[in-house]
# Entry
Amino acid sequence: MAKKKSDHKSTKTAAHADGSRGIDIGIAAGDRRRIAEGLGHVLADAFTLYLKTHNFHWNISGPMFNSLHLMFETQYTEQWNALDDIAERMRALGYNAPGSYHEFIRLSSIREEPGQAAAPAWHDMVQQLVDGNEAVCRTARKVLKTADGAGDDPTVDLMTQRLQTHEKYAWMLRSLLE
# Structure
């Protein structure tokens, strides 16, 4: 008995048990889920670090004002643009990206800092950003391992890029404290 076109179409649009709609990109559904969950943590860490860097850009004062104001601006601008790449990779894997403060707080390994009420001294800001960049590296490294094991080269590439950037930022910031 031949399949009708409508039967084929309904099969294509039916959601699978993992919530996907027939995604077949050569990565097993369980691997895609684990990678996307890890990317959610990377996104939360990256967003929290972006927000902290921007906060410090706004609230820096003292003798290092000009150089740190400019450095923080360069870093938060790059970080902002990278957030989209991480979220879009999650979507390509078939999962929604977290997008609320509540979700980011729950998923992030980076602690938020007050802005308006109590801005830390410049060297404390720098140390917090070192710690934040290193946290993003640790989270990205976990996702890279998972993605590599699943043959997910685009995520491996994205995590490699993020590692290069955040390791460099941590090094540059650490050098200010020496």
